[in-house]
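Re: nicotinamide-adenine-dinucleotide structure - here you go.
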Amino acid sequence: MFDLSGKKAIITGGGSGIGKAISLLFGQQGAEVHLLELNEAAASSVVNEIQATGATAFSHAVDVSNQKEVLAVIRAIGRVDILVNNAGIAHVGNLENCLEEDFERVYRINVKGAYNALFSVIPLMKKQQRGVILNLASIAAQVGITDRFAYSMSKGAIAAMTLSVARDYISDGIRCNSISPARVHTPFVDGFIAKNYPGKEEEMFAKLAASQPIGRMAKPEEIAKLALYLCSDEANFITGNDYPIDGGFIKLNN
Ligand SMILES: NC(=O)c1ccc[n+]([C@@H]2O[C@H](COP(=O)([O-])OP(=O)(O)OC[C@H]3O[C@@H](n4cnc5c(N)ncnc54)[C@H](O)[C@@H]3O)[C@@H](O)[C@H]2O)c1
């Protein structure tokens, strides 16, 4: 079960947090893992960790918002069985606190970055008549979250792109789904707490942890296990869906 032997998997933003956990687990399950990552040092360290277990992994220094770079790297990889569109950045603020450059930065990385990887991978998967795509959406695409204007916009776009790609390429043997985590304890969360709530880090962390009815944030490894299921052949009947993994956030917060 959940064997990825013989499969090539691309994980964007695989150098940290959820992407790192997915890269490690996919490597452990036999995939040849390719990290497309801005932070070369982080990506190399994950590749070393994967290789230490005897699995195969490569890091590619790529800014996902740059279509030329993404296309060149993915074409060179040649065959892609699994794409995980994971690279993303946070932004805290309501509409009035979201300046044009904030909006454009979040759009460029979270939305255009995913589009660039899809644009590069779909022709290969069509040729193969087979492939699986998993996009990292968020609970922010499904419910109104305070002070997440630009971020929610970007994750709403991920949800819509997931449906569009799933629909258009269903007859090419390509599956496309998304995962919507609530808060996951990664450098992403630590980073936006430190940046936006200086001096109140502990209080904010506790508040964010308590906002999941289950009483804590998720661990990246818990998200990776759902990603593994959805990208494995065991999930061959699943496409065009979003999977919340949220400690009860969406349905039990009342
Ligand atoms: N952590 C959470 O609470 C949470 C919740 C829901 C959804 N998500 C989503 O999950 C994904 C991963 O989040 P995380 O918490 O693991 O974040 P993280 O910050 O720990 O890791 C993100 C990785 O993406 C890389 N990256 C950023 N911009 C890039 C670019 N332009 N090109 C290539 N790589 C780039 C970073 O270098 C980093 O290694 C994101 O899409 C995020 O929106 C996170």
